[in-house]
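Summarise what follows for lecture notes:
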Amino acid sequence: MIELRNISKRYGGREVLAPANLRFAPGSTTVLIGPSGCGKSTLLRIVLGLVQADTGSVLIDGQALTAANITSVRHRIGYVIQDGGLFPHLSALDNIALLARYLSWDEARVQTRVAALCELAQLERSLLARFASQLSGGQRQRVGLMRALMLDPPILLFDEPLGALDPLVRSDLQKQLKAIFARLKKTVVLVTHDMNEAAFLGDQIVLMRAGAVVQQGSVEDLLRRPADAFVSEFIGAQRSHLPAMSGGRT
């Protein structure tokens, strides 16, 4: 369970995140969506502890995130960003195994876990010796996912993970992520600007505007019971994609 209590953030005189109270249920996928600059990535980074909120608290399974425990809490959270966020001077294998080796896992355990993740992410093991510049966009994203899953964390955070990919690769990875989420049953929070992607992947959707949460609910809630005119306008801009996705997960 992730719980945000009265979280807010300002930069100078600009409010980038209005006071927000949100809960992300265990085993569910919640998608944060909204126009560019609406505060969704800031909210995600506050959950991870990369950005400190001005007010409020973040609770992970009832434990408040503090300066004293932030490192141990982060080991329970996998984080995936656009294009994988790989270290360019490390091979794919070394990127994936970096934290496990830092935590002194023995090499046999590392290799066993990597093999399992290659199967899960559908990545050929022969690619593990390559550097990020030698991998395609889809391959880099798979490596980034494997790195996030290496310690088997109960929580996964995704910040626009598929935004830089071409449509065919993006569609393939959307289907793969949906299958992985269903199989692993982790608590997932994913940021996107694409309503089609949100409808396909999310159990719950949090629609934001100008730093504020406008509405939280299922795709059907937003479609049939919009909280205000902005919800209808935002969905209407991408409405042609939604009918086939509005049934949620299968």
